[in-house]
## 1
Amino acid sequence: MIMDDFLWRAGIAGIGVALIAGPLGCFIVWRRMAYFGDTMSHSALLGVALGFLMEINLTVSVALVAVTISILLVLLQMQRWVSSDTLLGILSHASLSIGLVVISLMSWLRIDLLGLLFGDILAVTVEDIYWIYGGGLFVLAVLIKIWRPLLAITVHEDLACAEGIQALPIRLIFMLLIALVIAVAMKIVGILLITALLIIPAATARRLSRSPESMAFFSVLVGVVSVCAGLMVSMEYDTPSGPSIVTVSALLFTLALIGGQLSHLTHIFKR
Amino acid sequence: MPVKTKKPKPLVSAKGVYLSFGKKAVLINTNVKVRPNEIVTLIGPNGAGKSTLIKVLLGLVKPDRGVIKRQPGLSIGYVPQKLTLDETLPLPVHRLMTLTQKAKHPDIIQALKETNVDGLIDAPVHTLSGGELQRVMIARALLRKPDLMVLDEPTQGVDISGEAALYALIGTIRDRYGCGVLMISHDLHVVMGTTDRVIGLDRKVCCKGKPAKVLNHPEYTRLFGPQAAQHLAIYTHQHSTHHHHHHDGDICQHHDDGACRNPNHLSEALPDDHG
């Protein structure tokens, strides 16, 4: 059976992650939430630790902790004496450190820390694939449902609210979606690199797109290419899967950047 | 006011509004009303609470005290202070028009024609000039068939020659649709000719009424400095030479291109007010 081959499992899982990371990543880029995504994904390690401690499904515990951290952040942002930026930095590194401390305290636990931080394709199970596609379909369906109001509050929140959109529920749903994506993408790219898979394909797609929807489409395409090529590199040269995928996507971004500059230059010369 | 005709009911009104952010009072006992077919302009220095008052009237910010009344089913076209779109978000004009509502293509074209920017329907929003973007935003508001237009500094990012044209456009829209208009403005010299009523705001309403009356008000001089008094001279001078007088309740047609467009007067009016 095809699922018996870990390479196929990794590929199918990776493509599933790229499918949801693309459109969601676009919104993270448009809303300038890259650092926010980082903070949420760093909290995933704490989620893993708690999942082991309480013996619950890791995907569930990771998603729960990510949601908790994001709600905590929204509440803390209401105070004024520490800026949002600083707050993100504190939460991001604190949750990562607490996660590491808790995991190392559980001395009975044999855990592949490097795999958690940077992704491990060998560890992808059939169950993970169900999570990725089940969760992924759910995320995509919800995202399509809230697409219009989310885009409206991204362009101008006051304007959208004045025209009857309830911003707070939309924002909360969006954070929930990010938490879910982090939980399912963790195995493939690793906790430290999830944000990269969200934002680099989206940023690469910017050059190719003339509308929000086409940018979401192209970011999926760039993501799928990155994942497939990255996994092949990882297999061929025995490099960690997450960094390999991110390296490929960074390469694609550079190409898009150079391509954009070249077309800009030829445009100037033609004039 | 010599002759009092029965005025139509206000579209929106605020009564006794008090709002503070922390310990700082932003609005104190503020009353505002906008009726159909009238243009009301909010003026005032930086931090006077103009934008906040607009947000209170739109229902975006809840006041600590006071009553906000909006006519039931009131359709509002809002043009916010400045649309700053993230460079990474590709957005053609027609998508901006249909951001919160669906609209048919001919209706979008029609709205853009009203503000003379129908050629830009497929243009990316990033490539628009300040004036073009404001016209698109006004067209966008028109698409909602508004009873009330609310504009927060409509001429921000618009060059001097575009300013008068933009105010003229707002006047035309009011004439054509009979909608109420509430706007914040810094261009006192131009606004005085287009507006029906002026409200001077400095956390509380310190002067209000017809432009000529407000210009004579000592609070106006206090708010905008002695240079602003020169506007009085400019204003009355223009209005005597061009024979444009405000009559009670009349719709004033002030698409007067002789309006003061001297850039010096702009800077004289509000030396430190940019926000």
## 2
Amino acid sequence: MKKRFIVGLLILSLFSTLVCGCGQPQQEKNPAADAGKDKVVRYNHGQEPETIDPALNTSTDGGTIAAAVFEGLTAVDMNDEIIPGVAESWDVTDDRKTYTFHLRKDAKWSDGQPVTAQDFAYAWQRALDPNTKAEYAYQLFYIQQAEEFNAGQAKAEDLGIKVVDDYTLEVRLNAPTPYFLRLTSFPTLMPVRQDVIEKNGDKWARKVETYIGNGPFKATEWVSKDHLKLVKNDQYWDKNRVKIDGIMITFIGDESTMLSSYEAGELDVIDSVPLTEVDRLKKESKDFKMIPLAGTYYYAFNTQKAPFDNVKVRKAFALAVDRTVIVDKIRKSGTPATAFVPPGVPDATPGKDFRSNGGDFFPVKADTAQAKKLLAEAGYPDGKGFPDVSLIYNSTEEHKIIAEAVLEMWKSNLGISNIKLSNMEWGVFIPTRQKGDFQIARDGWIGDYNDPMTFIDLFTTGNGNNDPQWSNAQFDQLVKKARLATDEKERMAILHEAEKLFLDEAIMCPIYFYTQNTMIKPYIKNLHVSPLGLTYFDRVEITK
Amino acid sequence: MFRYVAKRIGASLFTLWVIVTITFIIMHSIPGDPLTRDKQLPEAIRESIEEQYHLNDPLWKQYAYYFQGLAHGEMGPSMKYEGVTVNEIIAQGFPVSAQLGLAALLLMLLVGIPAGVISALRQNQWQDHAAMFFATLGVAIPNFVLATLLIYVFGVKLELLPTSRWVSWQSVILPAVALAMYPTAYIARLTRSSMVEVLGQDYIRAAWAKGLSRRTVLYKHALRNALVPIITYLGPLIAGLLTGSFVIEKIFAIPGLGQQFVLSISNRDYTTILGVTIFFAAFLIFMNLVVDLLYGVIDPRIHLEK
């Protein structure tokens, strides 16, 4: 009987599933059989970005695509140093406030048209135009009248952007901004095509036909929420640098699924892995890489609310955390955060970064004795009489296990056991934290640009991201001074002083510095992940 | 019949309006909004974006705007995905979810009903025990566990099928199996108990006594009547299967509507939440109507209109 056969088949298939599922992990087979034919990197970067319009994008995934399809005035090399992009060279006036960019004449859009200074002027003005709704418009606020224009208080003509001729662009800034040349390599400041955008409206960055760029790659196929295919752009002025035929970017959002897909040989690069798999991957696979990012995971103390309005309490809490345990045992990746500005953020002197010059403010292991002493001085010897407090975090497994571990450390090292964990859905958590409606809150910051300022100016009075709700006139003054400083050494010295001020006040408890947990097949060479989390493919080689 | 359908459609429109209104109210009363960001937006930028999406208007005005658009068949722009309308999100996601749902449905009907029938006919024999053992297992194992297992075995270890994504006909197999498991098991059990009950009825005994062939008794008299409770279950199930499953679509990275539905809520993508809700509700109402009409076809005892 047929039906009996079907039932038999069902039974058999279910049974075989159970049996096979318990097998031993085997050697990896079939190392990317089809990748070698046409040198395409198969790269997964999580959920499809909300937009890949360079002006509108705020995410690293969208930024990675924009950085492959477009090129700014400047670009970055393998060491994340600034190199010429569309601009061959530039002049800077002595007050460091006016930049004149000289554009190369052989830069072309993917449809063959030349890239001109007007393209940049249009792109920047567009990003600043309030009608564009660009959230990252503030990346351009360094330009004269830009902030006013964005708020509708100035005209486009007033902007400090001047097209001298087709290949010369003059930019006037409000203040010397030493990292301005870094910003010009950033997606928000990349050129876009006026004719294309005016013809297609906000749909231009939704279709590969109109998504015209001037970078090393161009888009040829896009299946929404599934994949975007980029191929080498033959019109790119430096096309000899590009050694691969293209990139297949897939949008698998689930970490376990991307790892399965990677292990099945369907992908060459994935840039996150499930935390629960990190231990196994570290042991089993040479492909596992921890790439440092310019970001810090921390707990914000609400400095306006008891008991954390007392600096001694805050310090005690920050000292009582064993950061090595979090990094090694709990999260299994990242590096212990001994201060706020992460490693890799440049300082005035090349070769040494801001962190190594600034030193450590918190121990990697808990300093229990000092923490207890401070807590006693604050009036809570051995945690006695400490009021009930709560720690809020947004509901993910990672935040939960870290919070539980930290709670345990505070309990055993400080003797405080009446701390409550309270998890919230993301959309509820963010406004709660921003309003300062908490005592301790999970927090994190990834730089908007690679300079200490993006980490330090958070804590100026009234800054929307000043989650500790801290306010200090001397600190505000220092940040202001740093913004106006023309000498880079002097500016960095001020920023070090400013960082020391809020770390001595322990307005937060830094936990770890972010790393991106990446799996890269050994035949993929020269993949560059910037500290801001953008992945660059223009120098990638496939060696097989 | 026609009057009945017209009446039902009228009632459905009212139901839909109630659903949209309740969703609108609940959606706006949960904390956070489409502009909730980890990094807070500068005030001026926030204001100009709110202006674009009418988010700074009073709620009743936003409600009116929404219905104004709806009257023209426009569900508005997504507040999360730049340059994409909700109509496009549904037009893109639904066919994918529907294809996967249909495959799962087919699998379920082809396996679940025969398994149930065989169990009922071979009551308490080994076929019955085996089928019911797996049916119990199928109901008990969560589909994400089975999905992960299937990916590991057929994708990673045996490399017979793609682990994920929606690229070829092979992509359908694993998610369809994972998606179909629970309803298949449930349908098998439902068919079995319904069939056992029907087989004990007098009219079946009469049919045997009349000397009808085994085929006629089983299929024409027994199975047809046993199908009524299954059809009841199928209506909402089909609506659920075709509009996509969040879990399965997420695990297999399938660009369907099920993922969008859940994501839009955590994104506070107001227009998408409403649009997908309306779509899902309308589909569900429609399927229930179809089921009610089918009763009349299958069971002559049921009359829709007196």
